Amino acid sequence: MTWRKDNRLALENDGARVDMVEKVTGRARYPSDHYPDNMIWAAYIRCPYGKATVKSVDLEAARKTKGVLEVELSKKEGTYHGDRLGHICAETRAAVEEGLAALKMQFTIQRPKTSLDEEKTPLDQFKGKNPEEAAKALEEADIVHEATYETQVQTHSCSELHNALVDCRGDHAVAWVSTQGTFAARREVQRSLELKQEQVEVHCEHVGGGFGSKLSGFAEADLAARMSKKHGRPCRVTYDRKEDYLDTGNRPGSMQYMKLGVSKDGQLRGGRIHTWGSVGPGGGGGGVRNPDRYDFGEVDKTHEDVHLNAGFPRPMRAPGRPQGTFGIEMMMDELAGKLGMDPLEFRLKNDP
To answer: Is 158's pLDDT higher than 60?
Structure first.
């Protein structure tokens, strides 16, 4: 391999990947490649709307569908598209799909909250820790620039869909989970089966992409574990592509208000920054790393997580930083333009 003086591995290194041959020949086995004998399938019953309540559902018809082992509806209100309302378990994947169709679910649809701009709290409702210092920096600045930037929700789009296979064998369980965190997956299976951690094995020789979405959550492993324990057979849960987009997390969207002052020589003096992050119906995780990277001076920073009827955030490649970097670099370019200064020179001047 070629090593750089700064101790980072060069992009042009000639090192061979240890799993290269397995992958290019198709011998690599992913969690989704395991199909033991006597295996059953399970899936979640999901809300197909942003916000809706079940008006009618034919549970008995679904339970009478050939191959269906059980159907349960655990709640009637869906608070985002893809919300888990219950589950179905069956002998085959086809029987699962036929059982879902037999439910013939009808919903009372309500207005969902989908717009970050419409649902956010107005800027004038927030006050940070140092508003006086930030206001003084703006007053003393030679040039002030004010702008709002926006980034959209991004999904992880893993090549291997979220999936889990759990084989509960009484006081011991073996699981194959597409995961970036085998210990976290083990904890989920262990809790679902009420076993000790040392009684659970989790296998994941290869994972077909995760990018943060397979570090936590594991609703697929929870359902597979519960159904395997109940029916005494290995159980597989594999999301389809639509489920993967709707209910396995995302990089949240953002809005970033920035009002910054700068002196004629290009030195940032400070100002006001407020960010909003789009999150699901509850919880947080919409943080934006702005300010960051440069010495902005005296900045009064506030943030709000805005609850929407949409999927929940999960880690995705440096959480909060890509959104913040977009806003910051846009502002730096626009300030450099107002100053008539080379954008690179302006950045170097404010590089701490």
So the answer is: yes
